[in-house]
Amino acid sequence: MNLVVALSGGVGGAKLALGLSRVLPEGALLVVANTGDDFEHLGLSISPDLDTLIYALAGLDNPETGWGRRDETWSFMAALAELGGETWFRLGDRDLATHVERTRRLRAGETLSAVTEDFRRRLGISARILPMSDDPVRTRLLTGEGWLDFQHWFVRRQCGPAVRGIAFAGAGQARPQPEVLAALSGGRVRAVVICPSNPLISVEPILAVPGLRAAIRGCGAPVVAVSPIIGGRAVKGPTAKMWRELLGEAPGAAAVARRYGDLLDGYVMDEADAVEAEGLRPRVALARTLMTTLAEREALARAALDLADSLRA
Amino acid sequence: MNLVVALSGGVGGAKLALGLSRVLPEGALLVVANTGDDFEHLGLSISPDLDTLIYALAGLDNPETGWGRRDETWSFMAALAELGGETWFRLGDRDLATHVERTRRLRAGETLSAVTEDFRRRLGISARILPMSDDPVRTRLLTGEGWLDFQHWFVRRQCGPAVRGIAFAGAGQARPQPEVLAALSGGRVRAVVICPSNPLISVEPILAVPGLRAAIRGCGAPVVAVSPIIGGRAVKGPTAKMWRELLGEAPGAAAVARRYGDLLDGYVMDEADAVEAEGLRPRVALARTLMTTLAEREALARAALDLADSLRA
Fold it and tell me: Pairing state of beta strands B128-131 and B29-33?
């Protein structure tokens, strides 16, 4: 009962994953990353959430942007623009090494898991980081302009077109990452923590991989989510806009808990959303969920683990 | 009679190509580049001689290294090393844009000629630069360690293993670049200039493409080579070492002329090699062939054109 399995998307999820990695003993954290945002660009295989997690846990993340690497240079993009290449998706020079090397190894037949595992080791990360599946899953959004690939909507169109539907293409055929499945069924799980990522496009792609939701529910450990909503607002990203457009309601903390339904045993909400706790089925813990400092990330990680441990007791 | 066709490899050839481009009127220069040095590395299609020519003619070349771009940054290589990637072939951040964008467009079905032509325009180069063929030709060297791909011998092994044989794999099936062939047969050629590149691995791959040697001989214009040897020595690169190992003789200026055989009508040799001129079949002009400054590149270009024009007269 010593393994914590965290489900995570990008920025917000990576912050809590870093907190968890710092308060847990070595080898006690397995982060399962959303790969629905993955895409192919300039002939390169790009895995934004995996990379954000790797950079955050290696201390290489860019705190200003929330994506990419710190101390980045941009010579590649400048030269690409001169040659008439596509520049709407910004790839820093250091970040590019991740994509070029991953693409090379995927083409040589390695799995995304194996490449990620090797990158993690080489960058000195003790937590395991694994994709939800080694098979491609691609989040697509139905908008007034038709179906758009996620990054085209998110980056190229800057979340502009209203979202009417979401599909996780390939999810139905995707096999869960085998080590994730083995970890969940090994009887060793202390808690499953759903990080404060966008439920609709960061967590639900993970849950859409056949077998993963059932494995989480059946692992015997408490499942605790941390709300991505603070005071009725999303900290970053398109969660609020998308939620309203797709579901026709404001994206409150309680609404997120209801969205996860019977998956949750516990729910960590921000103190600012205390009034929404009433009537929620999972056991609620209030905490300060805005993770600006490292100490705040660790404190929130402890709050989520404490809630999970109390549910087991 | 206004088109000059230059055959070129990398560094030395690019210097004379730049000189030619500056002394000739706009539209009067077509540079045919060796692609035998091309290779695939990190999943990218790399064309060293084409790139050296493009960078040199666009004023973007790195004068210290003779390859790659000036004002280069190296963040990509540093990050690639952290991830355990192959770093024996150094790719600068700006240079990388050329390879990524070219690879993307080749995979999308464009020819190497079309990509090169677009790069040339975008970088403001007035001379045409075309590969000898759009089909792959790969120079391989037979050494004491067996056959080595050219860049593995040249860069990875730093020209160490002794060369016993050279093959231009694919040359027999390669089709000459159509515009090059059309230009040579259009009756408009004023001169063919063989740049001071390594005959064995920079010029002979071009001549090995079926039809090109005959088209050069049959174009009706004088063919003039500029010696890559100055005072019995090669300015840069492995020409001398390779020549000795492969041919068992010192690589003199006269030996290079004899190697080109009946292809040449004229030969520009360095003043330092004047004693070697005696008995050579092609008409010889002596010049200062070390091209350190831009003025020296232009002067040597004029010397080659003057020799060609005198042969026609």
Answer: parallel
